[in-house]
């Protein structure tokens, strides 16, 4: 890892490390990472701000981390600043608001709910619960043709163009994508965008009453207007992991040992970067 890391490289790598549930406790316990992520909330580059928020959202998915996140110096105030800043894009404000509400409710749930959420935290394939913000919802897509990093990049580009998409996570091994969207955005818009690539076809995965799953195709003759997103610049496409890692359903960052080794490098960078 080069010593000349820029802020976007560091925050994107931290975001990807946080996406793996096995790394989340180590990131929260590290002395430099949380203060650095909070600093990134005030960075002039909107890509850096959004990636930092997404990293914290991943960390907050593990209920055991929430009290620590909430108590970290400057966390709640910085989230409020992002929410209130007039220059913050809409999706950035929504993500900050969701994190703020999750952390505000930390410690108030009953023990039974905490136990159930901890079990959910351990499921690698699921990142966004969707119960803490009524303005957002989660859509699970099964994507025929999502076979490699090239197709994944095409899918990313299609989703990033949709106004109302907050975040998304790929599960390459099962050809799925978990998409976090505003509540007023129709799921059909996601299908339309992905189908427009001509090499992939999206269907929606829904839960049945008995707890099973049902794959429902989008109506081919449905004409859903897709409003393009001009607020958020491209922030996710980046160098892919080696092709052999595509067998993993979620993990994109290598082994835990590799991740924690990089974590030390990132923490050192953050420690030296209190300048903006």
TrEMBL record:
Gene Ontology MF, one: metal ion binding
Assembly and interaction partners: Interacts with mitochondrial contact site and cristae organizing system (MICOS) complex components IMMT/MIC60 and MICOS10/MIC10. Interacts with mitochondrial outer membrane sorting assembly machinery (SAM) complex components SAMM50 and MTX1.
SUPFAM superfamilies: ARM repeat (SSF48371), HMA, heavy metal-associated domain (SSF55008)
Protein name as it appears in the record: Armadillo repeat-containing protein 1
Subcellular location as annotated: Cytoplasm; Mitochondrion outer membrane
Main subcellular localisation: cytoplasm
Coiled coil: none
Function, as annotated: In association with mitochondrial contact site and cristae organizing system (MICOS) complex components and mitochondrial outer membrane sorting assembly machinery (SAM) complex components may regulate mitochondrial dynamics playing a role in determining mitochondrial length, distribution and motility.
Alphabetic keyword roster: Cytoplasm, Membrane, Mitochondrion, Mitochondrion outer membrane
Superkingdom of the organism of origin: Eukaryota
Annotated Gene Ontology cellular component terms: mitochondrial outer membrane
């Amino acid at each position: 890892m080069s010593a000349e890391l820029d802020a976007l490289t560091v925050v994107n790598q931290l975001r990807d490390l946080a996406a793996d549930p096995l790394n989340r406790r180590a990131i929260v316990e590290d002395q430099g990472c949380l203060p650095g992520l909070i600093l990134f909330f005030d960075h002039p580059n909107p890509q850096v701000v959004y990636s930092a928020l997404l990293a914290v959202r991943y960390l907050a998915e593990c209920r055991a981390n929430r009290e620590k996140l909430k108590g970290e110096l400057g966390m709640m105030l910085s989230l409020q600043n992002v929410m209130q800043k007039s220059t913050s894009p809409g999706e950035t404000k929504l993500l900050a608001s969701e994190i703020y509400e999750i952390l505000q409710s930390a410690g108030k749930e009953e023990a039974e709910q905490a136990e159930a959420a901890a079990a959910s935290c351990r499921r690698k394939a699921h990142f966004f619960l969707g119960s803490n913000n009524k303005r957002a919802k989660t859509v699970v897509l099964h994507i025929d043709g999502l076979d490699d990093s090239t197709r994944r990049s095409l899918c990313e580009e299609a989703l990033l163009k949709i106004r109302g998409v907050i975040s998304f996570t790929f599960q390459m091994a099962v050809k799925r994508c978990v998409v976090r969207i505003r509540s007023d955005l129709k799921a059909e818009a996601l299908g339309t965008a992905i189908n427009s690539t001509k090499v992939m076809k999206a269907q929606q995965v829904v839960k049945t009453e008995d707890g099973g799953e049902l794959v429902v195709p989008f109506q081919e003759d449905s004409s859903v207007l897709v409003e393009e997103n001009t607020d958020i610049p491209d922030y996710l496409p980046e160098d892919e992991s080696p092709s052999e890692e595509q067998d993993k359903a979620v993990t994109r960052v290598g082994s835990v040992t590799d991740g924690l080794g990089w974590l030390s490098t990132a923490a050192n960078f953050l420690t030296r970067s209190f300048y903006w």
